[in-house]
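Hi R.,

Here's the chain you asked about this morning:
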Amino acid sequence: MGSNEHHPLHIFLFPFLGHGHIIPTIDMAKLLAEKVVKATVITTPLNAPFICKAISKAKTSDENVIHIQTMDFPSAPVGLPHGCENTDSISSVDMFQPFIMATALLQEPFEKLLLDQRPHCIVADMFFPWTTDSGTKFGIPRLVFHGISFSSLCAISCVALYDDVSSDHSDSPFVIPNFPGEIEISRMHAGPFMKRKANADHYRKVLGRKARHVGPLSLRNENSQEKANRGKEASRITA
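And the predicted structure, written out as tokens:
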């Protein structure tokens, strides 16, 4: 092996099988590839064409293209119809739990990919907690990807700390305990994002969570046509 041979950092990115999770993961893969990092997106066969189309315009060199690895989705063992590989294909609420069970069955083929390719790091969606065990098994660090903001993470964590709040299933608005700015949950979409730095500091320093900013990932799409082609055709908004 030559001493000058270049071995780029190789990262596995494993998004949950829904467009709201896949799209920001693709944006992250593009950013990594631009930084001369080998990025491999892990998915299933029916999701691969969508991902391939989304990354086709990525500005990366020939040596650092974004790779895609697929694993067969175990729909039959959990009683799902063939082709049910994305949340868009879930036609009833009763199908969601089997869908989650099927994603857990991806652990074995995922570990085979780890054994074969030995990436330096795993960035896996929050819906795949078992990837922590998989990474530990092969000595590979695993980072959790939350596609939501620090504001939302703070709100979820603060509510979970108080039994009297988390157990209240009424529709009445309430002030989130210990939340920066004392924002009412009914106004969560209106105010807290103006204090993103405060929420980030609260999440890390007060709640004691290790976390890093990686977004907004959508800002890396400078090309207006690339932005227009994001998501499902029926939900696209063009200016």
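Residues 149-234 form one domain.

Let me know if you need anything else.
M.
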